[in-house]
Amino acid sequence: MTTSAFQFNATTAFSLQGQTAIITGAGSGIGRASAIRFAAEGAKVVLGDMAASVHDTAAMIGDAATAVQMDAGDEADVAAIVAKAIELHGHLDIAFANAGISGGMEGIFDNTVENFTSVLRVNLIGPWLMVKHAGKVMADAGNGGSIILTASVAGIRSGAGGPPYSASKAGVINLAQVSAQQLSGTNVRCNAICPGLTETGMTKPTFDYAKEKGVTDKIGRLNPLRRGAQPEELANVALFLASDQASYVNGQAIAVDGGLSSSHPVTRQLTGQTAV
Question: What residues make up the domain containing 179?
Answer without folding.
Answer: 17-200+228-258
